[in-house]
Specification:
Length: about 525
Amino acid sequence: MNKAYFMGIDTGTNSSKGVLIDEKGEIIAQYSTTHAMTNPAPGHFEHDAEKDWWGDFCIISKKLIEISGVDPKGIKALGTSALGADCLPVDEDCKPLRKAILYGIDARAVDEMKQLTEMYGEEQIRKWYGRPLCSSDVMPKILWIKNKEPEVYAKAYKFITASTYLTAKLTGNYVVDKFLGLASFNPLYGPDHKPVEEYCKPICRPDQLAEIHEATDIVGCVTEKAAKETGLAVGTPVLTGTDDSGAEAISVGVVSPGKMMVQLGSSVYMILGTERLIDDERLWREEFIVPGLCDISAGTNTAGSLTKWYRDTLFPDALKREKETGRDAYLEMMDGVDALPAGSEGLITLPYFAGERTPINDPQAKGILFGLTLSHTRAHMYRSALEGVAFSINQQLKLMKAHDIPIDQIFVTGGGTLNEVWMQIIADVLGMEISSPAVTIGASFGDALMAASAVAYPGFETYDSLLKFIKPGKTYVPDPEKHRIYERYQAIYDALYGSTKELMHEVDAIADRSKTQE
């Protein structure tokens, strides 16, 4: 009997990754590429969908086949995931009409959020979302295109997100999974998972939205054109796909209540499995990928993007030496950081360098380094940045705990897990054990597992059956004394935003007025 293989490819903010697994769940090939995120204006973040999303996909699929030596016909199913939720208008040939407007880090649609809130009223908005509108919602992004780029809006055949785009390029079918579609495109889809004409009317036509499916539904097969570009066999089954955070959560076993993922990538995304939908306007809630499972989630806009800013702005010498000697700049940036005490000797970072999602839902929020003195060095500042991200995670974890949600296990995933000092800081701030997974490639592994599950390959028939393929890597145990110190700093961190919010907004207004006068 010929062996079966399953491919998973994930597109993220700064990179795309792919894996090929066999029928035992073992990774037999993996490959990754990088791409750039553009920032054409303050609060605007974009990708070139054709180059960054589809271009990466084609490179990775071909490389996985080349590295593994597998006959493409042996690949029994393909799962995809991508950063979500974005807004990409495309024409009838699935050609992008502009660069993709990215997920919650893109805060351009502030006026549209206000417009929609005035149109429907705050009470109705809260009924739909359980919170106010935020930069992670797609409806304001579509409205932004309608208001600001009417020529693009007029040509749009569909308004889609990244996972929809990839599946459409592979199969010709425009679909989005229930987890991503109902949460991010809310309230444009109704309880029957069909577009609601009444709510679509001010935003777009119902036919301009993708069809809702389960993430593991087989929604089409690789077309002849896509096969030539990807190296895959014509007719390979393709899943609906999902967003990267959902796939990454599956990759670490968030298939039942109490299991939690903290995705430590360019930004932070947290998903905790729950038995029911829980309303808290400071957080998000959705029906999760796993049928019958809900989740409560949260997002911090900067994590890896903040460490990258430090590298490029305050550690250019480390970046220069990396090019000269090959020693990783991020590794050099950690020199002396571990020797500094918890709390960075009184320095606290509010990591709102790109506005913030939960729990404050404020795209105008600003980063703060609080407590700077002449004795502080850039090592203090960098440790404080790592601690600031940990404080943000803990702030949101405390909100979840307040709803009496059990948390049995916390897996931290993403590139941040390579920094063991950062992982220990997070454990110390949380006062809880955290683990990195044995398989660290993340969402693409979850995609491959779901691909095997989609075709009900023996051993992969249910979500619970996937747990046997998910093993912990390293576990970090909190230091009780450091946790007590961090609790005091956490209280100051929690108070900083409320104490400076009005000043942040005033600074934003002054900057906007200055640009207008130039």
